[in-house]
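Something for you to look into today, if you have time. Could you write out one complete protein record for me, on any chain you like? The space below this message is yours for that.
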Amino acid sequence: MDELSDAELITRVLAGKTAAYRPLVVRYQNRLHGMVVGMVRNHEDARDIVQMTFVKAYQNLATFRIDSSFYTWIYRIAMNLAIDHCRKGKRRKTTSFEEAVAARDEDGTMLEQHHEDSPARALARKELHERIHDALDELNEDMREAVLLREVEGLSYKEIAERMGIPEGTVMSRLFYARKKLQGLLKSGVDE
C-alpha cells in the first residue's frame, strides 16, 4: 500500500479499509514531528501532539477534500494543536540540543558529519542552538511558524501561504519582521 497516493489511501479508509491509514501515518509522522518540535521544543510533547493530530485527522477524514493536499491539511491540524499547547503554557523549557534541527539527508537520516564534531565544536553548536531556540521563543506563534516552514521545511513563500492559509504578501511580511527580530535578539546576545 506504500506506493498508493494519499488520495487512493484516503479513499480506501473512507470505504472501510482502516488499515490504509497506517501508510499515511508512516509517510508523514517524522515531518510533522520535526515541525511540532520546532514549535513546542520538547520531543515528548511533540510526539503526543503528532499522535493527537493523526487521531483528529482520522476522526475528521470525511471532511477532507480529496483533491487537496493531505499533508497541508494534516500539517494545519498539527500546527493548531501545537499552538494551543503553547498557549496553554504546557511547554516545558529544555536546554538540550534538538536533533530535529541537525543536518539530515533526503530520507531523514542524520548526516555523518553531524556525529564527527570535536567536543568544543559540539559545545559551541549546542550553545548556538540554545540561543536560536530562545530567540525563536520570543517570536509570536505566527512568525515562528513561518520561519520554521521556510528555514526547516525549506518551503517557498507560495507553499507557506497555502499551509498557513494566508496571502503570500503576509508570509513575506511575517518573515521579514521575524528575521529582523531574530537578528536583533541574536546580536544582543553576542554583545552581552
In short: The helical segments are 6-14, 22-40, 43-59, 70-87, 119-137, 141-151, 157-164, 168-191. The first helix runs from residue 6 to 14. The CA atoms of residues 143 and 177 lie 8 Å apart.
